[in-house]
Amino acid sequence: MAFELPPLPYDYDALEPHIDEQTMRVHHDKHHQAYVDNANAALEGTPLADKPVEHVLTNLETLPDDKQAAVRNNAGGHVNHSLFWEIMGPDGGGEPSGRLADAINDLWGGLDELKKAMNDNGVKRFGSGWTWLVHDGTGLALYSTPNQDSPLLNDDFAILGIDVWEHAYYLKYQNRRPDYLEAWWSVVNWDAVAKNFDRAVAELGAPAT
Ligand code: MN
């Protein structure tokens, strides 16, 4: 089945005042829809059409050369945004608990340090991209990617990713990406992030500390 836009799991205004309703409408209904439509168009008639997005992004080299960039960008945009909506929520913020909290404390010394490092990676990403917390097969790692490059391209499991494209924040924050990143942690859904962490551990093993 071709990719489909997943419904936003809360109202467009649910993340106010940190992320405004208009941004959410345009971001979900227009930008994410465009990634879905463009990915489907690029994949049509190829052996990867109707394959899961994870399979598509880890097998890009099997596509014709003239399709690879469009699929990398748009299937990447689809999988990245599908994760992004899920890890935000109206009752967000606070702190993680359980194994995820333990892993963060072991590796970074605390949540504030993790936030600082992720925000710093996001601020330093020139142009458009994402700042990530991933499981890289041996442990948890932080990095940013350009454009819509997914951690799947590195064979990594995305646990938490923050969109730093201007379309994610410009209406409310204009050029102030650091202010957006600071505010973003007020909408993070730690339960959803913890589920991603648990899935990563199930697939790749407990992270080394
Ligand atoms: Mn986006």
What does this 3D model show about the protein?
With 209 residues, the chain is mainly α. It folds into 2 domains: 21-86, Helix Hairpins (Orthogonal Bundle), CATH 1.10.287; 98-204, minor pseudopilin epsh fold, CATH 3.55.40.20. It has helices at 21-43, 53-57, 65-86, 98-108, 111-124, 170-173, 177-184, 190-204, and strands spanning 129-135, 140-146, 157-163. Strands 2-1-3 form a 3-stranded antiparallel sheet. α1 (21-43) runs antiparallel to α3 and α5 (111-124) packs antiparallel against α7. The radius of gyration is 17 Å and the shape is globular. The model has no long low-confidence stretch (mean pLDDT 97). The structure holds manganese (II) ion. The site of manganese (II) ion has 7 residues, from α1.
